[in-house]
Design brief:
This protein has 442 residues and is of the alpha/beta class. It folds into 2 domains: 24-307, Glycosidases (TIM Barrel, Alpha-Beta Barrel); 334-424, Immunoglobulins (Immunoglobulin-like, Sandwich), CATH 2.60.40.10. It has 10 helices and 18 strands. It has helices at 2-23, 58-63, 77-87, 109-126, 149-164, 179-188, 203-209, 245-261, 297-307, 432-439, and strands spanning 29-34, 37-42, 45-46, 49-53, 68-70, 90-95, 132-139, 170-175, 194-198, 218-223, 267-272, 334-336, 340-344, 352-360, 382-384, 389-393, 399-409, 414-424. An 8-stranded parallel β-barrel has the order 4-5-6-7-8-9-10-11. It is globular. The model is unreliable at 1-22 and 433-442 (pLDDT under 50).
Length: 442
């Protein structure tokens, strides 16, 4: 009896061990040329990346039609890979190589060696994970850089990946597209298989220039979305004008079709930015989701592209915020401290709940997506309705602000817009009434 029980224990342990081993088997990913055109294959079948950058709300990502996600670093990598695998998603696993602009010195052999050893261990640890799609070795290391030795460091990691992981291609990601970066990657990092390009307003130009600039392997658009905050009109006081969610919807829809059209030229997919929400110039500029995790109108555009079908329950539509002085959202709006001002939505958003708020203009903005502190709403008296109208008392403090509006419908989707305005000091109080009363005394 004892021996029989032991055999059962051994059998259970053996089966569990083999189950773990089966889970740890990598899924082979390769790049092949078909009639001179690069394409990606996963487990022997064609694989086109319908992806988003981000690591939150993954079930929603799948529901919307995505098949892959991108990370920028290895924080929570095991958890993200495991979650992605359960949901049928793949992962472009990012390795955050040190940036010169953050103080990393590629002339320091000790620092470079330590970084290499760290990422070699990352490759060894995750190379067998079935959700892994490719290695993302460095993100925008060319942003404000001068030392081209960074490409040597990227090559060292890429060569290690090729030597120790035959199942997954390598990639590196540049900030925009520049012919010199293409040259240096081809020359100094030949073990890079896929060039990733982060591009926003210049996306269409990047797509047409990547081959003339000399890149002859596969490529992806690894970040794309609305016009960047550096690519738009600015108010006289320097505030950049953000697109409304409806303008972003049109941008995402048009740009996805442009990316997809390049599949026949070796573009193996893309990752839209950002699956989530973050403060970057504003709280809504790049987030595909709102602060509560609800899909915005831009997600409708992605769903159309990813699923190749119309969206059954779209988000509300907000084109702009209008003011009595002008209907053009890019025109300066200047008010005086303490006065009551009015704004409205020029078009109905249908059955949706509107929320208005005033936030200060961000003054500590960063570059390259570096962390920015979220801003708190300014407490001002506000009256909303009837209809699409909002009346509020201008803040007492002189400076730059934005009036925000969001709409949430019954499908739990949201739309948004904001309007820049500047508060000047309060108007001086007239003393003509006092003088009249003085001279009118009996």
């Amino acid at each position: 009896m004892f021996r029989s029980g032991c055999l059962w224990v051994v059998l259970v342990v053996f089966l569990c061990f083999n189950k773990i081993q089966l889970k740890a088997q990598p899924v082979h990913v390769q790049l092949v040329q078909d009639s001179g055109v690069w394409r990606m294959e996963r487990a022997g079948s064609p694989y086109y990346v319908r992806g988003a950058g981000g690591q939150v709300h993954l079930p929603l990502m799948v529901e919307c039609g995505a098949n892959s996600l991108r990370t920028w670093g290895i924080e929570r990598a095991q958890q993200i890979l495991d979650s992605a695998h359960r949901l049928g998603l793949t992962v472009m696993l990012g390795m955050w190589m040190g940036h010169e602009r953050h103080g990393f010195d590629y002339d320091d052999p000790v620092a470079v060696r330590e970084q290499f050893l760290h990422f070699a261990s990352v490759i060894d640890r995750f190379k067998a994970h079935p959700a892994l799609l490719c290695w993302g070795i460095g993100n925008e290391v060319d942003l404000f850089y001068t030392n081209i030795k960074v490409w040597d460091a990227i090559q060292e990691v890429a060569a290690y990946a090729h030597a120790h992981d035959p199942h997954h291609p390598t990639s590196t990601v540049t900030a925009g597209l520049d012919s010199m970066e293409v040259h240096w990657i081809k020359t100094k990092a030949p073990d890079i298989d896929i060039l990733g390009v982060n591009t926003y307003g210049d996306l269409e130009q990047a797509l047409t220039r990547i081959r003339p600039f000399g890149w002859d392997k596969a490529y992806m658009i690894t970040e794309w979305g609305p016009n960047g905050h550096w690519e738009v009109a600015k108010m006289p006081w320097g505030a950049p004008v953000e697109q409304s969610s409806e303008a972003k919807f049109r941008s995402y829809r048009r740009r996805y079709s442009k990316i997809k059209a390049k599949e026949s030229e070796g573009c193996v997919g893309s990752y839209a930015f950002l699956w989530g929400q973050k403060q970057e110039t504003t709280e809504s500029w790049y987030g595909l989701l709102d602060t509560e995790g609800r899909p915005t109108r831009a997600v409708d555009a992605l769903m159309e592209g990813w699923k190749e079908s119309p969206v059954a329950q779209p988000a509300p539509v907000i084109e702009s915020i209008a003011t009595p002085s002008t209907l053009h959202p890019d025109s300066p709006w200047v008010v005086h401290a303490g006065e009551w001002v009015e704004a409205r939505l020029p078009d109905s958003v249908g059955m949706a709940t509107l929320r208005w708020k005033v936030l200060p203009e961000a003054t500590h903005t960063k570059a390259g997506g570096d962390f920015e502190q979220s801003l708190g709403a300014v407490r001002v008296p506000m009256r909303t309705g009837p209809g699409m109208v909002c009346r509020f008392k201008a803040p007492a403090q002189e400076g730059a602000y934005r009036l925000y509006v969001s709409a949430v419908n019954r499908a739990h989707k949201s739309a948004h817009a904001n309007r820049c305005f500047y508060v000047k000091p309060a108007r001086p109080r007239s003393n003509w009434g006092w003088r009249w009363n003085f001279f009118a005394r009996p």
